[in-house]
Amino acid sequence: MKTALITGASRGLGRALARDLARDGWHLVIDARDPTALAAAADDISSGGSSGGTGGNDGGNVRAIAGDVTDPAHRADLVRAVEGGLDLLVNNASTLGPTPMYRLAALPVTDLADTFATNVLAPLALIQDVLPSLRERRGAILNITSDAAVENYETWGGYGSSKAALEQLSNVLAAEEPDVAVWWADPGEMNTDMLRAAGEDADSAPPPEEAAAALRRLVTDRLPSGRYRASALAGAQ
């Protein structure tokens, strides 16, 4: 059985992608900061999104470990949970930074440092920790990015710059690790709490399940390392 580690899986894209992989028979280790929300997500994922799940944090093939990916002790817990071998790491956990979102002229540098800690440094730390297993099993890394990494949206400079850094990190990693598939993917706008917190019209955006279904193709078809957009993947099916 293949094993995936997905961060930020209590809601939105992470939860939807975890549900899809569970249906494909994957063993999952998932994390999020809110233990109550994560337990509910684990129940939903292990039951395939239907009512009447098994309940608890370890229902079916889902193991939930609550914590913050910026915490080295929590990352160590995640690594121990996949000691039997890892086939896929999904770095989905992310933060917008302070909201309402600042224009760059007023963005506190300390807040930007916290954003980079979650969106760039923590993913890299996890990658470093699990790379030996991914190399051995010719596994894959999926880093969730954003169109804000490449577009000049006002007030999105802090978040966008962190995602741009994650994209370049992924780009270099793909060159350095030829035996590991490295994908960095823009899911597009989704109806999520994060988009709503940014002050955008989340209700008119597609559900995260649509992006998850498109990104699943990266895993099932093992597409070449590179940058992908969920909309393009969906259109190519």
Automatic annotation (TrEMBL):
<keyword id="KW-0560">Oxidoreductase</keyword>
<protein>
    <submittedName>
        <fullName>SDR family oxidoreductase</fullName>
    </submittedName>
</protein>
<comment type="similarity">
    <text>Belongs to the short-chain dehydrogenases/reductases (SDR) family.</text>
</comment>
<dbReference type="GO" id="GO:0016491">
    <property type="term" value="F:oxidoreductase activity"/>
</dbReference>
<dbReference type="Pfam" id="PF00106">
    <property type="entry name" value="adh_short"/>
</dbReference>
<dbReference type="InterPro" id="IPR020904">
    <property type="entry name" value="Sc_DH/Rdtase_CS"/>
</dbReference>
<dbReference type="InterPro" id="IPR002347">
    <property type="entry name" value="SDR_fam"/>
</dbReference>
<dbReference type="GO" id="GO:0016020">
    <property type="term" value="C:membrane"/>
</dbReference>
<dbReference type="InterPro" id="IPR036291">
    <property type="entry name" value="NAD(P)-bd_dom_sf"/>
</dbReference>
